[in-house]
Design brief:
There is one protein chain. This protein is mainly α. It has twelve helices and three strands; from the N terminus they run ααααααβααββαααα. The protein has helices spanning about 10-15, 20-40, 45-65, 70-95, 100-130, 135-175, 185-195, 200-210, 240-245, 250-255, 265-280, 285-320; strands spanning about 180-185, 220-225, 230-235. Pfam families: CDP-OH_P_transf. One of its GO terms (molecular function) is transferase activity. InterPro entries: CDP-OH_P_trans, CDP-OH_PTrfase_TM_dom, CDP_ALCOHOL_P_TRANSF_CS.
């Protein structure tokens, strides 16, 4: 039985993320999204069944890697990419058909980690058996460790940012409760939703204010909020980072217009380098090492950005203590 599924353009809007890894945007979505539409329209396959299929293909890829020969490496790389396409499809089918679940999200995460571990051990084990080079054993441990580090770090950064936002919202709501005149928004969200916004004048004013201000200057600004009846307090927790790297905002806006996130080497690109690029060119060691170094560089950049953000967070909290709010005046 055929389902009533919208046209492909609407499916793209409904299922593709506003920002994603460049590998996914360029090499996966053009294939996965049409397949998602056909799958939802012509079959009753569930997202969890697709997740299982992605795991099984990942294990087939691992089996190919164990053979060690270059021809098997190519086969393993191709199958791994197919596995990743399915891995991207399960979430899209869930969003399109409304079949998403908390358990499905957990299953997808766990199966991803199993696939990476299995392929890392198989790939490096096959190359060790072929060459006798013990460095491959260390590479297997390194790949598994870095994959885990990436996702643990991502989760902890998310929790830290969520905590900062929660505390700021609590302070503002307490300060504004008497008059109920303001809502809370965060500059990063506004820029993500509208990457083409002309904010250069605001940033220049911010830099001028920074040059004349002390460390205790508030980073709370009030701007009109589109489609809202109330004034919106906009909190900028990336102000110090952008002041140090003024070209970041333009690069970020350009990438977001093309749905590409600024974290150019994430866990996805790391996996693709290790399990696709390296095997395809029979250059497992150099590609894995380069991918690992780039992943660490981008992870450190994210940690540094978080550090600067916590300073903006501290200054914002200080501003509530040092500046009288309208409600308290």
């Amino acid at each position: 039985m055929r389902r009533d599924i919208p046209p492909l353009a609407e499916v793209r809007r409904l299922t593709q993320k506003k920002r994603d890894a460049w590998w996914t945007v360029l090499l996966v979505d053009p294939v996965a999204t049409p397949l998602v539409r056909q799958t939802a329209m012509r079959t009753r396959i569930t997202p969890n069944q697709i997740t299982w299929g992605a795991l099984l293909l990942g294990l087939v890829s691992a089996a190919c890697f164990t053979q060690g020969d270059w021809r098997w490496l190519i086969a393993g790389a191709v199958v791994y990419h197919l596995s990743f396409i399915l891995d991207c499809m399960d979430g899209k089918v869930a969003r399109l058909t409304g079949q998403g679940s908390v358990f499905g999200a957990w299953l997808d995460y766990i199966f991803d980690r199993i696939r990476v571990m299995a392929c890392a051990v198989a790939l490096m084990g096959g190359q060790y058996h072929r060459t006798g080079n013990t460095f491959y054993i260390w590479l297997a441990a390194g790949v598994v460790a870095l994959d885990g580090l990436r996702y643990i770090n991502s989760l902890e950064i998310f929790k830290t940012r969520h905590t900062m936002r929660k505390q700021i919202k609590s302070r503002i709501r307490a300060a504004r409760r008497a008059e109920d005149t303001a809502e809370v928004a965060f500059m990063e969200d506004l820029l993500r939703d509208n990457p083409e916004a002309d904010i250069e004048q605001d940033l220049q004013q911010d830099r001028a204010d920074d040059a004349q201000s002390t460390a205790g200057t508030p980073v709370l600004v009030a701007v009109p909020a589109p489609k809202r009846r109330k004034k919106s307090d906009v909190i900028d927790l990336q102000r110090e980072f952008r002041s140090r790297f003024p070209g970041y905002l333009r690069a970020r806006s350009y990438l977001l217009r093309h749905r590409v996130r600024t974290h150019l080497i994430s866990g996805i690109e790391f996996q693709m380098g290790v399990f696709i690029v390296g095997p395809l060119f029979d250059a497992v060691i150099p590609v894995t090492v380069v991918s690992a170094v780039l992943l660490l560089v981008f992870e450190l950049a994210i940690v540094y950005k978080l550090l600067l953000s916590t300073r903006d967070f501290a200054r914002t909290l200080d501003s509530f203590e040092n500046t009288k709010t309208p409600a308290a005046a």
